[in-house]
Structure formats: structure tokens, C-alpha cells
Amino acid sequence: MDLPTSDMELVRENEKIEDDKERGLTFHCELYDTEIVHKLAQAFLPGLSTACVNNTTGDMFRNPGSVAADIRKEMVDYLTQRSERFVAESVVLEGDLVSDHPYDIISNMIDDFASLKLNLFSRVSGWLLSEKREDKIDDFVQEMEISGFWLLDRREAVAQILVKNVDLKNIFHCDKKSNTAKELAEHVVNCGFRTMNCTNEGCSTVFCASHLEKHDSACPFKIIPCEQQCSENILRREMDRHCITVCRMKIVSCPFYAVGCQSTMPHFRIQQHCSDNLLSHLLYTLKTIHKGGSEEDLKKRVDQIVESSSGGLADARDARSLILKVKDAEAKLGPLEVKVSEKVSEEPNKDGENSSEEPVEAFNKGGEQSSEEDKISGEKSTETINKVGEELSSIQV
Q1: How far apart are CA 273 and CA 275, in angstroms?
Q2: Closest among 262, 254, 333, 331 to 297, alpha carbons compared
Q3: Contact 221, 200 (CB under 8 A)
Q4: What are the two backbone dihedrals, phi and then psi, of residue 60, each rounded to the nearest 5 degrees?
Q5: What is the structure's pLDDT at 302?
Q6: What is the pLDDT, as a whole number, of residue 214?
Q7: Distances in whole angstroms, Cα of residue 219 to Cα of each of 191, 215, 228, 311
Q8: Which region ranges are annotated with the description Disordered (predicted)?
Q9: Is residue 166 within 8 Å of residue 43, measured between CB atoms?
Q10: Phi-psi region of 81 (alpha: psi -120 to 50; beta: other; left: phi over 0)
Q11: How many CB atoms lie under 10 A from the CB of residue 238?
């Protein structure tokens, strides 16, 4: 009989040791996801305001401010109890939960509480007073913020408890347990939920250590290299403005786009492009002025203008300025000499032979007629130059 009694006592002693060991794990990490807790704390005031307005709508003797303190206490108790029962509710509602994110879960609880505070008048006439009701809710939120009715740090303390109650997967709070205070202190230093402040000048964001990389990749106050790879370092929030205004690498159209040059290039290369393509820009301009001129005639005219300009054309940086220089040059050179096209006539073969076998004879008009045509053509060219000059004078590149 002694042996079994001894065995039983040994088992009980071992159980006692295990119980003591479990009870010894009293050091818990209290860190949490700062971003979620802060976001929830921000949602408490609109929820409380809605509940107060719902409860006093149509009441001549009460207003939201007169019931705020009592409803706040009811709201905290309600959310705490609901969050503590969330594990059981999640089992019952398995498959019906829209989201398992703590913010969504607690936000739904806040909405449920506000709905419970609807009085009879609110339920009957709420749809008639919807716009006025929303304005009243917003106004009361601002009133509470200004008066400091429910301070942010106290709201965050409530939110922290709620997050821990509904965060079943321990994603948004730390559940680390330690045997000693020293062990816990060592853990806290490296805990992924430890609070950090952004080090970028001008940024006051607070976040968990585990979110450092995420915040760093989006912080509007971080100085980063230009996205278009110029030599500048710019605040992320000013990057778009920099890229479309002053960045030397922004892509722009050629200043002579209006007369036909379709080239695009980084902004800093405009001057080089204009210098390298002076002749082609001049040809584009002449084609605009002398629309009926042949390529050969216009190229000859380009050579004439270049020879007579003594390098002044290189100063033209846009279509308007080049038009003016071309106009001055052509005034000195005189009308454009246009080559008269040859007319061909075919006469029937008197001997009945196939006319296609006979050479085609070309004829030129008399010197007098040719001279008259040159004169008319010159006058038309001058008129065209003046007209195009006037049209392009308003062009701004």
C-alpha cells in the first residue's frame, strides 16, 4: 500500500511544480501595433458623437453634451465586454465574419453600440433628418476635440485593451511572456512592436519597429534622389512638382514643334539639339512659308540664308524667332527662285506609227512669259512670308 501512496504523492508534487512554473510566467510584453491603436482611438469620438446624437434627437430637454459622459462609460463597457466575448462569437459566426482585422472588428462594435442608442424619434424620422443629423454629429465631434472631453492617450489605452482581446492571431500585439523582469527588458529592446519615431525632419509619425521599412518607403519627408535621375535630391512629397517643372531631365518637345520637328529630349539638351539641327529647323520653317516650293528649291534657299546670315540664325530658340530671322534674310535675298516645271505634249504620228515609240518633246515658254511667272511667284512668296510670320507671332514654345 505504501508504494501506490508514494507514487500518488510524486505525481501531485510534479503537478505542483508545473503549476508553480506556469504561475511564474507573470512578465508579459505589453507592446502593440501603435498605428492600429491610434487609428481606433481616432474612431472613438465619431462613434461616441453618433451615439449621443441618436440618443437625444427630438428631445427638447437633453442635448449630446448632457449625456456624453454617461454614454462614454456605457460605450467603453460595451466594447470591453464584446471584445472579451469575441472568441466565443467568432466560433459561433465562423464563416460569417467579414474581416478578422482588429480595426474592422472594433469599428463594427462601435457602429452596433451607436445603433443601440437610437431613440424612438430617431428610428422613425432619421431618414428625414439625415443631412442635419450628419452635420450635428460632425459638430459635436469638433466640440469634444476642442474641449478635451476624451483625451487621445486615454482613448488609446482603451483601444490597446480591445486590440489584445480581438487579435486572436497575435498579429497586432506582442504576446511574449518572460520568467524574469530582466528577460522581459531584454526582449522589449528588440521587440518588433516597440515604438519608433520617424527621424526625417518634419515628420512626426510614430510607428512600430516592424513597420520601419514600410514607413521609410512612403514617408513624404524623406529626401530621395530624383526619380528622373537628375543630380538633385528632393523631398518625396515635392518630387512630382520637381519632375514637371524644374528638373533638367524632364522630357520636352522641340521648340520648333510648331513648324514640324517632332523630336523629344531631356530639357537640358534643348540647346544642343537646336544647334545640331539648325538646318533641318530652317528647312521646316521654309516649308511652312513656301508651301508650294519643291524640296530642291527650299534646300537651295536654306544655303542662301545660311550664307547671308553670318551665324545669326543660331540665336533663334523657337519657331517665332526663327520666322523673323528668315523674313529679314529673304527680304535681302529677294523672292524665292522657283524652278518652272516642264510641260510635255504628245502629237499623233503622221505616218500612223505608235506614238509611244517616238521621243517626247519638251518645250519651254518664251523668255518673256518665264520672266512674268518668276515675278508673280516672287510676289506670292513675299505675301506668304508676311502671312506666316503674323500667324506664328502668337506661338509660344
Answers
A1: 5
A2: 333
A3: yes
A4: -80, -15
A5: 86
A6: 92
A7: 22, 6, 19, 52
A8: 339-397
A9: no
A10: alpha
A11: 12
Any bridge partners for residue 343, and if so which? 363
C-alpha cell read off for 375: 515675278
> What does the block give as the cell for 183?
528577460
Q: Tell me the one-letter amino acid at 188.
A: V
Q: Select from 161, 151, 169, 173 the least CA-distant residue to 81.
A: 161
Burial 161-189 (b: 16+ CB within 10 A, else e): ebbbbbbeeeebbbebebeeeeebeebbe
Q: Within the chain, what is the greatest distance between any pair of CA atoms?
A: 152
* Cα distance between residue 57 and residue 121, in whole Å: 7
Residues in the chain: 397
Closest CA to 154 of 78, 65, 72: 72
What are the tens digits of pLDDT across the range 147-184?
999 999 999 999 999 999 999 888 999 988 888 888 89
392 is written with which cell numbers? 506664328
Residue 241 has pLDDT above 80, yes or no: yes
Which of 160, 199, 194 lies closest to 176 in space, CA to CA?
Answer: 194
Q: Which residues pair with 173 in a beta bridge?
A: 32
Distance CA 44, CA 78 (A): 13
Band (pLDDT 50/70/90 cuts) for residue 334 is: confident
Say which residue the cell 460605450 belongs to. 75
What single-letter amino acid sits at 350? K
Alpha helices in the chain (DSSP H): 2-23, 34-56, 64-84, 86-92, 102-116, 120-125, 130-147, 152-166, 181-190, 212-216, 239-244, 270-276, 278-289, 295-309, 319-333, 367-392
Average pLDDT over every residue of 2-10: 41
Closest CA to 44 of 88, 80, 97: 80
Q: Report the interhelical angle of 34-56 vs 64-84 (nearest 10°).
A: 130
Answer whether 70's CB lies under 8 Å from 153's CB: no
From 154, 194, 197, select the one nearest 174 (Cα to Cα). Answer: 194
